[in-house]
Design brief:
The protein is α/β, with parallel strands linked by helices. The protein has nine helices and twelve strands. Among the domains are: 61 residues, Alpha-Beta Plaits (2-Layer Sandwich), CATH 3.30.70.20; 113 residues, 3-Layer(aba) Sandwich (Rossmann fold), CATH 3.40.50. A five-stranded mixed beta sheet has the order 2-5-6-1-7, with helices on both faces. Strands 8-9-10 form a three-stranded parallel beta sheet, sandwiched between helices. The protein binds iron/sulfur cluster (SF4) (2 copies). The site of one iron/sulfur cluster (SF4) has 14 residues, from helix 3.
Length: 283
């Protein structure tokens, strides 16, 4: 909901192309909100390695060539097992096997849907319910983002491997935190990735009241990390003048007070770019 509201906020700034991208491929709620007559669907097929046990000699070489640690080799049993959820379909294992023990077989992993919501352009992925081959679908979605647009990408909560892959392709990461017992751990994990990939990172605090102890704790933590807080959104259930936007008969979207968040992000981005350029030219 925050990404959708932020997307609307950005769209109002007069950019020619703004795109909302749904990366929550296991729970693609966004697709249900699109106008049916605007929908186009692309079925996504990806070559998945399949180990042919009749040809495999259990040497383990393919496992050593898999940078994603998607092939488990057990020399004592012996056995070779593919962990589909880690596989990015690069095909290196097949090339590494001199015994013809791996075939790449086309698998249907899901679909990518594009459509409109009012004036807005939206793209979203939907993983097949039975499929664990999520990383290739996420990559297919990344390849189809409009390179001329400002893309607001909506991710699932948490940080699985596929989310990490997509996150590394972003310019800016907006971490949405709210008062949950594990917020510090979640923040540490996110910062570990965005810091490593040199992605501009900041926070939006959701369901957070001014003067709350949670806000004080986060502010203190952010000061230590030099991490900006780009916005604070109160719990919309406590808002006196909450607005509800009726998108269609089946869907309602609460208008959250995200005004100012985009301006804060662009200000940080300008500062980040100038700092990065200075650092870059000094070396
Ligand atoms: S490299 Fe080929 S033969 Fe060796 S374990 Fe892998 S699939 Fe089997
Ligand atoms: S296709 Fe690539 S990622 Fe998948 S198992 Fe083979 S080497 Fe690993």
């Amino acid at each position: 909901m925050i990404s959708h509201n932020l997307f609307r906020e950005v769209a109002q700034h007069g950019y020619t192309y703004v795109q909302l991208a749904g990366f929550d491929v296991e729970k693609p709620d966004l697709i249900d909100r699109l106008e049916i007559e605007s929908l186009t669907t692309e079925e996504i097929y990806v070559p998945q390695p399949v180990i042919e046990v009749t040809k495999c000699k259990f040497c383990g070489i393919c496992s050593g060539y898999c940078t994603e640690k998607a092939i488990q080799f057990n020399r004592f049993v012996p056995s070779v097992t593919l962990i589909v959820s880690r596989c990015c379909a690069c095909g290196n294992c097949q090339k590494a096997c001199s015994r013809n023990g791996i075939k790449m077989k086309e698998k249907h992993v899901g679909k990518i849907v594009t459509g409109r919501l009012g004036m807005h352009q939206i793209i979203a992925g939907k993983l097949d319910p039975e499929s664990e081959f999520k990383i290739p679908l996420i990559k297919a979605l990344l390849e189809r983002l409009n390179p001329e647009a400002i893309c607001i990408c909506d991710f699932e909560p948490g940080l699985d491997l596929a989310v990490k892959v997509a996150l590394e392709a972003m310019d800016v990461a907006v971490i949405v935190l709210q008062n949950k017992p594990d917020w510090k751990q979640h923040l540490d994990e996110m910062i570990a990735i965005t810091g490593k990939s040199k992605i501009l990172t900041g926070l939006v605090l959701n369901k957070t009241e001014e003067n709350s102890s949670f806000l004080s704790e986060v502010e203190e933590d952010c000061n230590l990390r030099s991490l900006p807080i780009w916005g604070i959104i109160p719990d919309f259930r406590t808002l006196e003048n909450k607005k509800v936007l009726n998108i269609n008969d089946n869907s309602k979207i609460f208008m959250l007070p995200v005004t100012g968040i985009w301006d804060a992000i662009t200000k940080s981005h300008l500062h980040f770019q100038s700092t990065y350029n200075e650092t870059f030219t000094q070396h």
